[in-house]
Amino acid sequence: MSKKPFYITTTLPYLNASPHIGFALEIIRADAIARYKDLMGHEVFFNTGTDEHGQKIYQAALDQGKDPQAYVDEIAKEFQGLKEKLGLYNDIHFVRTTDVHHKSSAQHFWKICDEAGYIYKKKYKGLYCVGCELFKTEKELINEECPVHPGKKPDEIEEENYFFKFSSFTDDLIALYNAREDFVKPDFRYNEIKNFVKGGLEDFSISRVKDRMPWGVPVPGDEDQVMYVWFDALTNYISTLGWPEDSKTFEKFWVNGTTLQIAGKDNLRQQSAMWQAMLMAANLPPTDNIIINGFIVSDGQKMSKSLGNVINPYDLVDEFGVDALRYFILRHVGLSEDSDVTVEKFKDAYNANLANGIGNLVSRILKMVTSYSVIFEFPDREDSLEEIQKEESFQEYREALESYDFNKAMDFIWKEVGDMDEFIAKEQPFKKIKEDEDTAKEDLAKLLLNLWYVSILLEPLLPNTAEKIQEHLAELKMPEEPLFVRKD
Q: Whole-model pTM above 0.85?
C-alpha cells in the first residue's frame, strides 16, 4: 500500500536575530506532527528554512559593517544548527531565500502572476513598518505606532513600486474560508482573518526601488526594482519542493498530498490571506490547513533583547537536554493563546514530571527487573504499534494529535505513567517477590509491556527519551544514569 503524502512547513524565521524560544516552539510542534504522521504511515515532507532579504536585514548588516550575504550566512548557520540541537526529523528540508534555486523559483512565480494580469506598477506613498516589513494604514496604528512594534513610528515612503492585485481576491478567499471551516485553527483566528478579508482588501506593494534597498531578489524585466520580502519569501513553500522544474514532487505533496502550515499570530494575514491569494493568482492549489500559534511571553512581557528577558533555546538544551525543552513546549505551552514562560517554571515542570516522573518510573521498574532477574520478550515494534491502535484508549491520543492538541496527547501519556506508579504502589511487587515470586514477576512483565507501549507513543513527542527507554528495555538492565537528572 502506498503511503499518503503529507507536507508540513514552519514559517521561515527572519534573520535579523539569533534563534529564540518562540521559533523553537513552532519548529518543535511541526516536528512532532511530522513524526506522528510518519508513525501513522504517511510519507512526510517537512520544510523549514530562513528568510534572508528585506530592509531589516539590510540595515542590520550595514550597522555591523558587514556585507548582507556574509551577515545572513553567519546567522543561517545558527538556524541550520537547530536540526541537530533540537533533534529534528531526519528528512527535514532546509530552504534559504538566498538559494539560487529559490530566487529563480520566486522570479518564475512573479512572471506567472504578471502574465495573468495581477501585477502592476504605480507611484505610492505610505507608512512602512520595518519591523513587520509591511505597509500599514493609519487605522492599523495605535498612537501612530505599529501595535506589534511599539516605540517606533512607521517610515513614510514615497516611490514607484509594483503592486499585487490583492483586492481581486476578496470573494475567492471568502469562498475558500467558507468551504473549509478548519482552514485556519484555532477558530477565533479563522474568524479574525475572515473578518479582515470581509472588511475589504487593498493591493499591496511587492517591490522596492533597488537604489534605496538593494538587498532582494531582482524583479524580472526591471533591473531598478527588487522583490518585496514577503512576495519573495512566501514562495519558499513550493520552491522547496523543486517547483517549477520538479513537477513530480510538487504534484505529490502540494497538489495530491495534505498541506499544513504552522505560523505565529503575527503571520496570520500573510499566511492565510496574502499567500493564498498569490497561489490563486498563479493558478495553484491553496494550502489545506494553517495552525496559528500564540506568542511566548516572560513575566507577562513579550520577549525582547532590550528588556533582557529573551530565553535562548540553546541554553535550555545545554542545561536540561533537548527532550526537556520539547516536553515543556508540547505540554505546558498553550496551543493558541500567549503563554508565560520563565526558566523557573521550566525547571519546576522538569523536576516534577521528568526527573521525578517518567525518569523515576523507568529507574524503579528496571531496578526491580534486574534485582529479581525478570526475563521478558518484547513483541515486535510494528506488531506492538498495531496492537496499540486497537486499544480503545489509544483513540484519545490519536484524536489529540490529529487535531494538533499536543497538551492533550502529553496528558494521555502522563496518565499512563501515573497509572503505572499507582500499580506499583498497589501491587507492591518489591514486597510480593518474597511471598509469591511468579505473581510478582507477572506484575513486572505487565509494567515492562506498558512501558514499551508508552515508549512508542513518545516517539513523535520525545524521540530521544523514547529511544533511550527502548534501549534500556532491550538490555533489561539499570541505566548507568537517570533519564533526567534532577536540577536543584
A: yes
